[in-house]
Design brief:
Blueprint (H helix, E strand, L loop, with lengths): L7 H18 L3 H26 L5 H23 L5 H24 L4
Helix pairs in contact: 1-2, 1-4, 2-3, 3-4
């Protein structure tokens, strides 16, 4: 899929991941196998879900599952902030980006079309 044919929601999520992975790589060793790996894996699951939803006619189930994964990342990042693995500014930035993608997915579900 060329960059021009990518869904805006997919592009926004990839941009978020470019920011996220270097952040989670800096988590302390004690959090690397719990928070960091979990956040990274869920974030990659979301990429896969967006690809599947793009090429599936019955996408609502996939998109609802994606919304659930987005909520999991929100909670894990909040806990990461409480535990001082990420700064409040990083947490705030992440939540803004995640909320933006969540709204796009919600619109896609609501209208049944690619957003």
């Amino acid at each position: 899929m060329s960059k021009n044919n990518e869904l805006p929601v997919f592009t926004k999520w990839i941009e978020f991941l470019k920011w996220l992975f270097p952040i989670t790589a800096k988590f302390p060793h004690k959090a690397r196998f719990t928070f960091s790996n979990r956040i990274d894996n869920i974030a990659l699951d979301i990429v896969e879900n967006l690809i599947e939803a793009r090429y599936t006619k019955n996408r609502n189930e996939i998109l609802r599952h994606t919304n659930l994964k987005i909520e999991k990342i929100r909670v894990l990042l909040r806990l990461s902030n409480y535990s001082k693995f990420i700064s409040y500014n990083s947490y705030e930035y992440a939540i803004r980006k995640i909320n933006e993608v969540g709204k796009m997915i919600g619109g896609w579900i609501k209208h049944g079309e690619i957003k």
